[in-house]
Amino acid sequence: MPPTLTTVGPVLHTPDTCFAQLPDFPYTPRYTEVGGLRIAHIDEGRPDAPVVLLMHGEPTWSYLYRKMIPTLLQAGFRVVAPDLVGFGRSDKPAARQDHSYGNQVAWMSAWLEAVDLHDVTLFCQDWGSLIGLRMVVQAPERFARLVLANGGLPTGANHTPRIFRLWRAFARFSPWFPIGRIVAAGCARPLTPAETAAYDAPFPTRGHRIAARLLPGFVPTTTRDPQSRNNLAAWAFFQHWDKPFLTLFSSGDPITRGGHKTWQRNVPGAHGQPHAIIRGAGHFLQEDKGPELAQKITAFIKATPVAQSPT
After folding, report:
1. Of residues 126, 200, 208, 275, which has the active-site annotation?
2. Residues 56, 99, 283, 288: which is the catalytic one?
3. Which CATH architecture group holds 11-303?
4. Active site (annotated) includes residue 283
């Protein structure tokens, strides 16, 4: 059963003027209304071309994919990259109680249905995987292949890395929350001042940063977490997933490093795939190795015909 859309209270919009100076990101946003919220996405390439869906995480937005999009377009794909609710150009609910892991899954699942994408190759990282993989569970018929990078489906049953516990405490308690600098800290290569400013652009006030502060606290860290059961159910689903499944984790991510092994071992569609460790990349490997990732995705799509839906 698809997650239920809840009614939200007041929302904040980021003024278009905040996005006036975005280096290397000339793409025009499109908007879809879902449950009273306006969700932004970019959609580039031929409408009839194979779809690559790029799901960003926390606290980034679709700008994260600017180094991958040109390579994917040149390979002949249609590239779709949404901004999660609370991020990028999408609406930002003003009330803390309107934000939850379950709501993110419901919002983005409804968005996917509204834009009506099919035969999708999903690339997801960080919170893009916590949400994106649950979207697959809700509508498996829409997806042809999956590529997972530096992410997963935490259930709270395993040890939580200390660095993540520190990050979660920082997001919750620190009076200072410089999003551009936070993204830079998760990269192996320095960001330019203009790139840092582009990550700050969607969040001009404290109110605009509510989702960015709250999402770390929604990651299940115990089996008593409200979403632990749903993620356990999703794991059970993927143990029967026989469509192509590729992992591209980086060597320099202290939070998810090694997480690819469980997926390769337990997902039928992952067996025999050209999995890779991306060397010289941090948590935000799209920043550090974007063209390399896009090339590996391209090769993966061209080498894997569409498989049958899982039973």
Report:
1. 126
2. 283
3. 3-Layer(aba) Sandwich (3.40)
4. yes
